[in-house]
Design a protein that fits this description.
The protein is of the alpha+beta class. It contains 22 helices and 28 strands. About 45% of the residues lie in helices and about 20% in strands. Strand 24, helix 18 and strand 25 form a beta-alpha-beta unit. Helix 9 runs parallel beside helix 10 and helix 13 packs across helix 18. The longest helix has about 60 residues.
């Protein structure tokens, strides 16, 4: 009998050991391929991160700006970049550096060539005029001479030509793929071969491998046709490794990840023989035990078997009579102990069931149970009855699927139910709740065996309010991102506008003086007039750009929306063309609103232009005005075009985002609409689909206490000439000269200062104070408002008129808005400037 038992057990142990070895080898192969994919993905991520960094640098760096400016911008980019980059630089097409993170000239040995024109990666980038990833090189600027991978990206000018190149070096030893390889078993190696056979990267001994070329190797040509293979090979360093491979997309190359066989298959083989030996020992032990038991307890076992059968039938009081101390007696004692334990467990089970039912009934979370075989609901606790409603689960809603929405029932039926006494997360579901509501719940399911019935216990966690809160939070984050983008663009536009308006001011003032000095019959008056008109058009363009900065001098008007639409109707019709019908519906008793001067016209013209482009085959543009409530004015602009794609809709208000060709759109139209509407304390939303077209809804607060809006009363005539003494403070020479000439022609006596410091010093030297100071707002070191604050401490009654092409001082802007401060926007006409000076001089103290 023992021999008959030993042979099958030995065969079973051998089969189990062989199966385990096969399973371990398959698992090892899967882990190797997974590790190769992971290393490849990490490498791809590092290369992609470098490309994103250079794309960002190419948008802000320029070869024509000063070296110091580029260096400052690069340091900002470098500070925001993740660790691992050794340097960031910009160079012209000849390889001459125009900016860098580090001082290249100081780091290089004396007499070395500081240009990049001979570097292989730079030459390749100039040849291809495309993003280039070079071969790893030793860093010349790192004291440790670590390996870096050079990246080069072209910088395109406005005409699309390449004007410069930006580059960066990524430290090889800090790449995520290299760090990942170090965590693998010792002596594991990651090798990356380009498709042309050159070694691109290797985690071990890169110095000697970087010059190798495998393009003629048979295994390389085979591997290039068999991606993601896994095999055992003899490495060139003599180590046998299991090697997995995967292809890269960012660079045309293949990554090979090798793990030493001594750390992988050797352990599997050792485990196989250990399993065989353990199986043999276990089989022999089992055979000996079986033989011993058969000889000693073959007869008394029947008695214990009958007692066990009685206990199994429910006779909890049946016990074995134990005498002696042999094995049978011990077994009898064990049977008795088992019976006692079973009786105690039965009592504990009954107590546990009572506690469970009490916890089930009093749980604050809705809890239900249903049978797994047919889904019929068996129990609900009080919280579930309150959630679903007292009578919501009667009649047809007696099964669990009746609580699931019809579209989700097939997915719910396919859910795997827990096999053991555990709780699993079963996902999010929409369920009917009391009051005919639909609520979103998280469902957690457990398994409970009751007698011969297996039921599921479901606990519901109502997350509807949390989902709504998350949606609201995401909407607010989107608004914040939009505001931040506009703020960044505004800062950029304001800086340009300051210098640009200074130039325009000098041009327009000199053109106006030239026009007035020329005889009426002179043909040159027309040329002077054209110069003046061109500068005025340029000034209007600058004011449009300054919409984004929120720092332009805002002169709000109280507008009658319906009257404004009536005025703009013909202009909008001409803009739309004959193929688009214009329908305007003005509601009765629409309250006036406060809007920046010409702001509403720009909003409607931009929306109309977009609607026209969306209806190339014709359609209808409708504009509707009404009162949403007593305090809110609503304007709806709707077209019947082909709609906006779902993936484009969230980005339509982003500055410079456009789906139109470059020659037809700049991406500023809707961004300007958003800025103008929100600047008027309004809100704008958009809905769109391919059937009904696109609809923009704008809501504005009604102007309080404005009465009926209408045209402003004509101002009283102002005398433009005078004989008073004016101190002109302006840092721009051309503007200063033109302004002094204009004031002198109007009869004023003038003094000039090129800075705030010079003006303060001049005041102490003058025998009599000037009657008025005409000062620029933005000046180097000390601004105009800061200068006046210092002057007013000594001369508090001295009057001032500000002029600026970009009013970035909050004190000045608030003063303009409340008519406390006179500010003349650049470029200005003679009438604007002289009128402001005259009004300030004639104003009561």
């Amino acid at each position: 009998m023992a021999l008959g038992l030993t042979i099958p057990l030995a065969l079973l142990a051998g089969m189990r050991a062989f199966e385990r070895a096969q399973r371990d080898q398959r698992a090892l192969a899967e882990r190797g391929i997974t590790s190769a994919r992971r290393a490849t993905q990490l490498l791809e991520d590092d290369l992609h991160r470098a490309r994103l960094l250079l794309n960002a640098a190419a948008r802000v760096l320029h070869p024509d700006v000063s070296r110091a400016t580029n260096d400052s911008l690069i340091r900002v980019i470098f500070a925001d970049a993740a660790v691992g980059f050794s340097n960031i630089w910009i160079a012209d097409s000849l390889g001459v550096l125009k900016g860098a993170m580090i001082d290249v000239e100081q780091r290089l040995p004396q007499g070395s060539d500081a240009t990049l024109r001979t570097r292989e990666y730079f030459v390749e980038a100039v040849r291809t005029k495309d993003f280039t990833i070079g071969q790893p090189v030793r860093s010349q600027f790192d004291p440790a001479r670590r390996w870096v991978i050079p990246f080069v990206n072209p910088v395109h000018g406005p005409d699309g030509r390449v004007i410069a190149y930006v580059g960066a070096g990524l430290k090889v030893d800090q790449m995520a793929a290299m760090l990942y390889t170090r965590d693998l078993p010792p002596n594991s190696v990651l090798t990356v071969l380009r498709d042309d056979g050159r070694v691109f990267l290797r985690s071990l001994d890169l110095e000697s491998w970087i010059t190798r070329d495998f393009r003629d190797a048979v295994s390389f040509r085979r591997d290039s046709r068999l991606p993601r293979t896994f095999e055992e090979i003899q490495s060139l360093d003599g180590t046998r490794r299991l090697v997995a491979q995967d292809t890269l997309s960012t660079i045309k190359a293949t990554a090979y990840l090798g793990i030493p066989v001594s750390e992988t298959l050797a352990s599997v083989e050792r485990q196989f023989f250990v399993d065989l030996l353990a199986g043999a020992l276990l089989t022999m032990t089992a055979a000996l035990v079986a033989l011993y038991i058969a000889n000693r307890i073959a007869s008394p076992i029947d008695e214990l078997a009958s007692i066990a059968q009685a206990l199994a039938r429910g006779d909890q009081h049946r016990r074995a009579v134990v005498s002696g101390s042999d094995e049978v007696a011990i077994l009898g004692q064990a049977v008795n102990a088992m019976a006692d334990a079973a009786q105690e467990r039965q009592a504990a089970l009954a107590s546990s069931e009572r506690r469970y039912r009490q916890l089930f009934a009093t749980s604050p979370l809705p809890t239900i149970t249903w049978r797994l075989n047919d889904g019929r609901i068996e129990q609900l606790n009080d919280a579930a009855r309150a959630f679903f409603g007292d009578d919501s689960l009667t009649g047809i809603r007696a099964r669990i699927l009746d609580l699931i929405q019809p579209a989700d029932r097939e997915r719910f039926s396919a859910l795997p139910m827990p096999e053991l006494a555990e709780t699993v997360h079963a996902g999010q579901w929409i369920m009917p709740a009391a009051g005919d509501q639909l609520r979103t719940v998280e469902l957690y399911v457990g398994r409970l065996e009751e007698r011969e019935q297996v039921v599921a216990v479901g606990v519901l966690l109502d997350i509807s309010d949390r989902i709504h809160a998350q949606a609201a939070l995401e909407a607010s984050r989107a608004q914040l991102r939009q505001a931040q983008q506009l703020e960044a663009l505004g800062s950029f536009a304001g800086g340009i506008a300051h210098d640009f308006n200074n130039y325009l001011s000098a041009i327009s003032t000199n053109a106006e003086i030239l026009r007035d000095d020329l005889p009426a019959t002179s043909s040159l008056r027309n040329e002077a007039r054209e110069i003046l008109l061109a500068s005025q058009r340029a000034a209007n363009l600058t004011r449009q750009i300054l919409v984004f900065s929120r720092r332009q001098v805002v002169r709000e008007e109280v507008l009658d929306i319906n009257r404004q639409l009536d005025t703009l109707q013909h202009m909008l019709a001409r803009l739309l063309g004959d193929h688009v019908a214009l329908e305007i519906s003005c509601g009765d008793f629409v309250a006036p609103v406060r809007f920046a001067q010409d702001g509403l016209e720009q909003v409607l013209m931009n929306l109309a232009a977009n609607a026209r482009d969306a209806m190339p085959s014709g359609g209808t543009l409708s504009i509707v005005t009404d009162m949403k409530d007593d305090q809110t004015v609503r304007i709806v602009v709707r077209d019947t075009g082909n709609g906006i794609a779902d993936d484009v809709l969230p980005r339509i208000f982003e500055p410079f985002f456009t789906t139109k060709p470059r020659e037809r759109g700049t991406g500023l139209g809707l961004a300007m609409v958003y800025s103008l509407v929100t600047g008027a304390r309004g809100r704008i939303t958009v809905t769109s689909d391919s059937v009904r077209g696109t609809s923009f809804t704008m809501l504005f607060p009604a102007a309080q206490g404005a009465g009926n809006a209408g045209p402003a009363a004509a101002a009283a005539p102002v005398t433009l000439r005078g004989t008073e003494h004016v101190l002109v403070v302006e840092d721009e020479h051309a503007v200063r000269s033109a302004t002094v000439a204009l004031l002198s022609r109007a009869g004023y006596r003038t003094s000039v200062a090129a800075s705030a410091e010079e003006a303060i010093a001049l005041l102490s030297e003058l025998s009599t104070l000037p009657d008025l100071i005409l000062s620029d707002v933005v000046m180097p070191h000390v601004s105009g408002p800061q200068m006046m604050a210092a002057i007013h401490e000594q001369y508090p009654t001295l009057r001032v008129v500000y002029m600026s092409g970009y009013a970035d001082d909050d004190t000045v802007m608030n003063g303009v808005a409340t008519n406390v401060v006179q500010l003349v926007p650049k470029p200005f006409s003679a009438g604007d400037l002289l009128g402001a000076i005259r009004r300030t001089l004639d104003a009561d103290d």
